[in-house]
Design goal:
Elements: H1 4-41, H2 43-46, E1 52-58, H3 63-75, E2 80-84, H4 91-96, H5 104-108, H6 114-117, E3 119-120, E4 127-129, H7 146-155, E5 160-164, H8 167-176, E6 183-187, H9 198-201, E7 209-211
Parallel strand pairs: 1-5, 1-6, 2-4, 2-5, 6-7
Antiparallel strand pairs: 3-4
């Protein structure tokens, strides 16, 4: 008999690719819906001239990829700064093809200037602020109030500040910043055994939530 499993492998591979393509297309549709929801939800802030602060976090398999897609979608019609507060070894920098570099941590510690740490996304008009030196999740970025000071300054230069954070860091930011987030986009995923769904966790806050 011939090696039939090879033929079967091609069959399953072909169908797996179709499923993956369909899942990717569905994710793109949801990202577009999230972008339109943010524009509508934050429209009242447009007149104030102050940036809308958008928190993006999730348990999905590729949160950084989805966050970047969302930021690029918003950046097609507005000035956007994507801020990485994640502690996952600067994953956003890697996704964007940018080198490891100083960022938010060094700004808060007065070791760098804005113009030295903010990057241009190679594939869009978005700007990007990496997390910088690793720190413990929920730990201080610098002296008390340092992060609030940095974000207030950035509020004046952008239409949207998009904060990419792991769930634990996102919760810490939502609790700790003086100015609340304008809205949150939650990238859905299955919680660990016994864990609470993200939508339930972030319902503790008053900002509106969009679930992708």
């Amino acid at each position: 008999m011939g090696a039939r499993p090879l033929s079967g492998s091609r069959f399953f591979s072909r169908h797996s690719s179709t499923r993956n393509a369909a899942a990717k297309h569905a994710a793109q549709i949801r990202i577009g819906e999230a972008e339109r929801w943010i524009v509508a939800t934050c429209s009242a802030e447009t007149a104030s001239g102050r940036a809308s602060r958008i928190l993006v976090t999730g348990l999905s398999a590729s949160p950084h990829v989805q966050t970047l897609a969302f930021a690029r979608e918003l950046g097609e019609a507005a000035r956007v700064l994507l801020i990485d507060t994640s502690q996952r070894a600067m994953a956003l920098s890697a996704v964007m093809g940018l080198p490891r570099s100083p960022g938010l941590a060094e700004l808060c510690q007065l070791k760098q200037r804005f113009e030295d740490v903010i990057w241009r996304d190679p594939a869009s008009a978005c700007h990007f602020l990496p997390s910088g030196r690793p720190r413990r999740v929920g730990g201080p970025w610098g002296e008390p109030g340092a992060a609030d000071r940095i974000f207030r300054a950035l509020d004046e230069s952008y239409r949207y500040l998009i904060f990419c954070a792991d769930p634990e860091e996102a919760y810490s930011l939502a609790h700790g910043l003086k100015r609340p987030f304008s809205a949150a986009v939650l990238l859905d995923g299955k919680p660990e055994a016994g864990g609470r769904p993200l939508q339930e966790v972030f319902a503790d806050f008053e900002f509106p939530i969009f679930l992708v």
